[in-house]
Amino acid sequence: MKEMDNNKLKIGIIGLGRMGLMHTAIFNSLPDSKVVAVVDPAMFPAKPLSMLNPNIKVYKSIEKMFSKEEIDGVVIASPVGYHVENAMECVSKNIPFLMEKPLSINAKQSESLVNELEKKSIPNMIGYMARNIDSFREGKKIIQSGALGRIINIKGTVYVSQLFKQGKGWRYDPKVSGGGVLESQASHLLDMLHWYFGPVKRVNADILSVYSKGIEDFAHVILEFENGLKGWIDSSWSVRFKRKMELRVEILAENGVLVITDDTLDLFLDTAHGEYKEGKTFFSANDLFTGVHIDIGGAKFTYQAEEFIKAIQQKRQASPSIKDGYHVQKIVDACYQSASENGTPQDVF
Amino acid sequence: MKQLDKILLGHNPLFGVDHLSQERGNAKDQKFENRSALAEVLRYAHSKGVKAMMMSTHPRAKVVLDIIANDPVLKDDFTIYPLLPYIVKYVRQSNEKGMFNVLTELLSQAGAGASLSMLMTGMTGLASGNLYKMAKILIDIEMLPFKGHKLGAVFMHDALVDLALGLGCDEGFDIFREHIEKKYNVPGGLITKNVPMLRERLDSRGWNDYLIMAAFNPTGFYMNPSLESTIKEVQRPGMNFIPMSVMAAGAIRPEQAFEFIGKFPEIKSVVVGMSRKDHIDQTVELINKYIP
């Protein structure tokens, strides 16, 4: 048992907020990894955690953790403003890292990191976990199969009932979070569309702040992809009746329609294509479910952790990578720019 | 372990939660904003022999508890199975203001029901990192709305159970069970999405009997790592297993769901969400047919 344990990848977690705690729980339980250290300057909840599980050591800085522990991979779950700084410390020690989304408060802040990663081949990953939701994974397969024929346009929405008064904490401070619902939640959708349809060339955006000061609670974006495809997304964290974040992508194409939500996938085809039949095909969450080694907060996070572990073991790039996160960040920046100029189109250079 | 009620009414449909479709959940949510609609469902279910209900401290729980307390029949003949904590509330609040602030505010706003000593113990626990004291005080605060009601068992929410399981904070399970059994005099149970892993961990802490609630259905929905491994756990000596998500969130026909459960004589109780009279009639009949 002890020997088996020694073969596990030793993971360090930066930032023990809600996401950090969940990552700790998952990496600590998978057969190929264990968490040996957490870094958090705050006493709570790091200290109680190490009291309950003395195998996990607490450090006040990444530097201290690296000097005391042998670390095979790091999860960065600190506030967004610290992401790049934390990642650079991993890069300087050639340690693979999984970074919570979004990448940084703006693309410029992460330029140096992206450049460093071009020079060194360190497995890296950005936490756009929605790619790992069963229905969206299946959606990717359908799009890649070509079953839909030429795609005409796409619509995406992301909504959650999260904020109905001025928020407190770093998430609502633009200097630390980088932005509002666009940066925090619509970025999941942007990553998905980038994964599905390739890079985005141009955007027009409109944002609205109702409850928050300095960040947006609503955002509407028109997108033009490099391949010529057009679409729009709409997002808000201040809508009613969405107890969990809900993503939805609707793809209108010459051979049919594909609608994907967190729970379902609805395909309609005029003519059959490969394994996909003519007419309606419906997959529920139940149809798409497969058991995972441990489920804490959804199988999507387990799949994400497994992908990071495999990338470390196989010394390869993870999906989505920091580079993917950089493109999303550039789209978000262009959206803020466009919104500040009354929706004037902006190129995502 | 004492005999638990055979049929536990699940709170999800009454509180607007639907695991297969949020949209469907929202529709139910709007229906049961109406107090008389809620009362009618509870009374009808009771008349058909459903005399127990799972309940978190969802804002609507107050209304349901109030209906029960003021109903001449329900007040003495309806058992509550609390589910702690109401996790969505904490997630939303910690998104808004951070985990530490949520806990301190909770402890300071525990309300008229919380005694000063409760408050002081909780604050001291938080400051000194004494989690055991704090955990007990948080349990007691969450239990306040259920005061005066007949209790069947108290369960820890799967979000918390699975987090503690993953973090290796196993001692939390001992603390929860001991506190519930000692202070509230009912069994302390755990809800999980990872039955085999949890049971192994409990064994390593010296447990030899367990009250566990988890998804159980013939398609393996929400069962990790697999249907087969979960079945083995259900059949294990010492296991008091209560199935939930028995119809795999509506993907399986009721007859098929309860016929499957009927194959496991170890199962004595089941949780099922019911929100319409015809659904109650059909479900109760099927449960009585397959679970003796």
Strand-helix topology:
The complex is a heterodimer of chains A (349) and B (292).
Chain A: H1 2-6, E1 9-14, H2 18-27, E2 33-39, H3 46-52, E3 57-59, H4 62-68, E4 73-76, H5 83-92, E5 97-99, H6 107-119, E6 124-126, H7 134-145, E7 151-159, H8 174-177, H9 181-197, E8 200-208, E9 218-225, E10 230-236, E11 246-253, E12 256-261, E13 265-269, E14 279-283, H10 285-288, H11 299-313, H12 322-340, E15 346-347
Parallel strand pairs in A: 1-2, 1-4, 2-3, 4-5, 5-6, 7-10
Antiparallel strand pairs in A: 7-11, 8-9, 8-15, 9-10, 11-12, 12-13, 13-14
Helix pairs in contact in A: 5-6, 6-12, 9-12
Chain B: E1 7-9, H1 12-15, H2 22-31, H3 35-47, E2 52-55, H4 61-69, E3 79-84, H5 87-97, H6 99-108, H7 116-128, H8 131-143, E4 150-151, E5 154-156, H9 158-167, H10 171-184, E6 188-191, H11 195-204, E7 210-215, H12 227-234, E8 239-244, H13 254-262, E9 270-272, H14 277-290
Parallel strand pairs in B: 1-9, 2-3, 3-4, 3-5, 5-6, 6-7, 7-8
Write structural notes for this entry.
The complex is a heterodimer of chains A (349) and B (292). Chain A has twelve helices and 15 strands. Chain A has 349 residues and is an alpha/beta fold. Chain B is an alpha/beta fold and 292 residues long. Chain B is 51% helix and 13% strand. The model of chain B has no long low-confidence stretch (mean pLDDT 85). The interface between A and B is large, with 49 and 51 residues.
